[in-house]
Amino acid sequence: MKKIFFLLSIFLLASLNFACKNNTDDTSSSSETAGFYLTTSNSSSNFYRWSQLGTLSNVTSSSRAVSEESDYQSISYTGPTFLQKGLGRTFEFEGEVSSARSADTDSYVECKCQGYEKGSTYNFNIIQDTNAKSYSYESKPATLKAIGTYCQIWTLDDDSVELTDEHFTTLKNRFDSIIYVYETNIVGKSYLDLDDGETSYYSNLITPTEDDRINILLYDIDGDSSNGNILGYFYGKDFYSKNSDINSNQTEIFYIDSYYAEQNINEALSTLAHEFNHMLNFVNKTCKYGLDYSSDTWYTEMLSMTIEDILQSILKIDDSDSPKQRLATFNTGMNYGFQYQSFWSSDYASFVYANAYAFGTYLMRNYGGIELIHEIATNEAVGEDSITQALNTVGASETSYDAVFKRFGEVLFNTDNSNSDLCSLNISINETYKDKSYTSAAIDLTHDYYSDATKTSYYEYYGKELEWPEPVILPANYESLLYKYDKDTYMNGIAIYPSGFLVKGFTAPSDWDLSDIILKNSNLDYTYYSD
Known about the structure:
The chain is of the alpha+beta class. Helices cover 24% and strands 20% of the residues. It has 9 helices and 22 strands.
């Protein structure tokens, strides 16, 4: 399901508390500065508060120390001053149909709402409140507005939003000619196209015929027009034969918010691509192999947003209507991670959406392109195992989820891709895969679009101001980041969550030797890099 609300996400590193030995001789003679980066990543299932992240200590004799707290000047950073529409746009329902997954619940039934003519009506079961902890339904009539090669588009009869024939025609044509064709080429078959026996894992699924089409129902989700935050959703329960417990519509269907479709057709098209990917994931993972990824929301959301990225150019969608709008949130909240499950339906959702998208597009741009995404989406695994298998299948330079996650932070300082040994998002995709051409533009995280915050701050080193290199990427609302290593003051409420990390860039005199700086009191992975 797609949401627009602003949520938080964090990837954290250890607190940059420097303990450098005091060496007052020659303190002002070192005029040259060098850039250094520290990346700390949390690949565990735990989360760590700031006070648990450890402190830095330098044990080399050549390094400097600060004897007084006043020798450091605090760095203030207030984060982006804007919120962009569309943050946290998706929300998932498909993991809640386990009660219907048994061989003896129901017999096969044909898909419903098929074979109708334009202008026909049909009653659909609609969720009354998508934000409720448990869902209640009402049956409401809808009218068939457009029929394409692969889709049927409906709208509720009592919907408060009046869409035009042009809206329905555009959605139908783009879905038929681009979204369906280009997306199934990567993500796998739709349910309607599965071969005999490919859905044999369950015996209570609907049975499509060769003439059936995917249904897209538009309505003002939750009846909240501009006050709403849902752009669309997919619910796998509709694939199951009718059951009072799940209120199945007995067809391959997903739902799009009519208010936002009327306001911005391009955002609606990107939403179509996103929700269709959820449907294809459900088909190719759950229906085909019986895999349950209800606890891996990050995995299917990562794939859906990466597909939006891949199809953006073909659909002629601006960055502001694409998942790229999330990258400003990624820049300021990478320490929230993307595997902390409770964040996906909380006030932190914008952050975990942003981080999951950044991770997916990082994988695509650095470890195998379109073929890697195809393998992740279609192999017989989910979550971390799926990524590990896909990396090995395509012969990537790294062969495990842990390895690629540990290197994820490199994209935050190799923003211009000038260091070919490091990973970057500033890599374009121009590929032909199975006779289809795909293009995805390189991403420069230093562009103003991805952060409007001031990028330079400073601290004092023996009275000398040293600039932080561009881009300075700090979590929002952090202040006083530099302390002595033994200072017993930490940021309250700051934590690094599962799959979270923090990259810290700083400049220092060129004779600082960071090779022996160690991180104490932390079990997290950390890596040092220098320019």
